[in-house]
From TrEMBL, chain A:
Chain ranges of the DUF403 domain: 1-312
Coiled-coil blocks: none
UniProt-recorded name of the protein: DUF403 domain-containing protein
Transmembrane regions listed in the UniProt entry: none
Organism for this UniProt entry: Alsobacter soli
TrEMBL record, chain B:
Species: Alsobacter soli
Name used for this protein in its record: Circularly permuted ATP-grasp type 2 domain-containing protein
InterPro entries, per the entry: ATP-dep_Glu-Cys_Ligase-2, CP_ATPgrasp_2, UCP005522
Lineage summary: Bacteria, Pseudomonadati, Pseudomonadota, Alphaproteobacteria, Hyphomicrobiales
Residue ranges constituting the Circularly permuted ATP-grasp type domain according to the UniProt record: 71-448
Amino acid sequence: MLSRTADNLYWISRYMERAEFLARILDATARLATLPAAYGGAGNEWESVLLTAGAAEGFAALYDKPTERNVTEFLAFSPENPSSIRTCFERARSNARAVRTALTGEMWEAINGAYLELGRYEPKNMTREEFARFLEWVKSASLAFDGSAYRTMLRNDAYWFSRLGVYIERADNTARILDVKYHVLLPENERIGGSLDYFQWSTVLREVSALTAYHWVYRQSLQPWLVADLLILNRQMPRSLASSYENIVRFLDDIGSAYGRQGVSQRFSRNVLTRLENTRIEDVFRSGLHEFISGFIADNTKLGSVIADQYLL
Amino acid sequence: MASAFDEMNGAEGEIREAYAALKRWLDTAPADHLALRRSQAELFFRRIGITFAVYGDAESTERLIPFDIIPRVLTKPEWTRLEEGLVQRVSALNAFLADLYGPRECLKAGVIPEDLIYRNAGFRPEMAGRAVPHGIYCHIAGIDIVRTGPDDFHVLEDNCRTPSGVSYMLENREVMMRLFPELFSDNRVAPVENYPDSLLATLRSVAPRTAGSDPVCVLLTPGQYNSAFYEHSFLADKLGIELVEGSDLFVRDDVVYMRTTEGPKRVDVIYRRIDDDFLDPLAFRPDSVLGVPGVVSAYQAGNVTLCNAIGTGVADDKAVYSYMPEIVRFFSGKDPILNNVPTWRCREKDALSYVLDHLPELVVKEVNGSGGYGMLVGPHATRQQIEDFRRKLKTAPDGFIAQPTLALSTCPTFVASGVAPRHVDLRPFVLTGSDRIRIVPGGLTRVALKDGSLVVNSSQGGGTKDTWVLDA
């Protein structure tokens, strides 16, 4: 297939996944920000969510002090923000239009529908309730796209490139949450039983929709190392780094065998997965959670460019 | 202007044979039936428009071209004559182009003035003396035809560059067959759905001789912001070929490749929907980002076929058009089967003074204009518009031709007031391959929806109709 088509499919998925991620972190942040200070409402939630979204610099160029209003506007609606929910939907749609014939009708309708619906939201003077409904809608739009791709696409290279976009974006998003919040998971910050940490940890889990999953997997109260374990190493957890890489390796293998050729991206992704598989959470904490996450983010970014070099350019 | 010939009612008000079955159906169909079907047709177009990604948002929904549910009907004998005329005309156009970029016999013989060619913006000196694959220049032509009487068909324009509209021809038939299956059992209508197959066969037949037995064809689009992008994507899909943008292609050692996930893949035939000017920044406009650097050099080296060839625009020109009867005679040795519309060339002194004296009754066109712009329709113009044109004509007479205001034939059309006659034209698509010429029966009928209007262009209130050629 045309490299541009593969590239578009890959980025459509990344944008749709990113939009959902933004909706999740905004949702979790809004919840955290309403808590009294004693329960973890530290007052800098809106700054923190900008860091998690990787949008702090762009924000600082346009606004002064982060507030609930300007941060939500920037992350959700701003056309100035290259990764706002609005921009993500617009770019996904523009990419989809360019490769319309490579998409199934259902996928196109999911994207085009989201784009058209987006126009009906009036960001000015949105109440908290309206904003919460908006975030719910964003998540359902992303789910509809994901479901339509899963259900309707032929299992060929078009599908595999589209899925690669999902998992590379997802791995990046999960790692970013950990990168920004790693300090609340470190032992020295631990104040056993303190409600402050409890709400910080539960926020991290909420950001990846894993609060319920945590209890099912570990059957105990929130522990920072188990939160990290769930998000980094646990393969049952669909947003964990390990699970994302299992998928990445699988889809790259599918591409490699269809084309009869393995390359740098197959080898590189397998190495990342092997490292995740051979690591225990104790090792991660011993050698430094922050360093581990930073290293992972760098690897994941590198894989993105290796895939681009090998297939998309 | 004489009163127009109506294709259903004829001159004497009788029902003409081609429309007999359709007329019975119109008379018996309940009034609200047509309205219902029309709204269903619109829904269908909106849906496929949305599905195919062009007419998605509120602004461009308005760009849906109106579709009229009453078909335009031609009999088999009418079509057979048209078809012969089209084959003759397009063969002559191709011979003319090959001659202009080759031996120039027609210029030596004085068939057409040299300066009309050499000073023509569509003429590409880069192609002079270069052989093109199989000697064919205009692979895909759209010949605009108007009718003024039972046997009077005239060619109004030859579109030899990148004619569009064929997707409407195909979709119009698709929607008609869905909405009115009963009409298709009462009338034996020649199918058009083989157009994509014919086009693909044409493209494959003109691959360079160096290409293998399975030549790689692509459709080159300026991209999704082009107004015809929908058609490009539709056709690529129907042909099963890649829809490429300039950046998907690159040239190495005079060979064109497309960038694929499995590495570079050689391209043999490019059906390009980009104008000459934007095709190659190294050869033409250096600021073009739509094109492919080096593609012209690959073309000149004979390693890739461009459809249509570079420089066909010279035959598209309205001043050159006026010489078409002589051109057809020169190259075919026969009288033209299809007439031109009588044309005054304002570059000629006598013609100019006639035109200036008769502006209120003439249609004046810019030689290089298209899409119905830059045009004066005398009988419908205000005094001011006429005076503006008079000034333009006096300043630059070379840039204009004039034609009588033709009484274009009318067809019954379903409009707000009910079924009423509206003026129509016809654009058949003529495909020239190395093996043969292919024409699907019919073409695109455009209709001026405004009462009395003669302008059928979609940019100016025109709509389209399904076009039937009855096979029995």
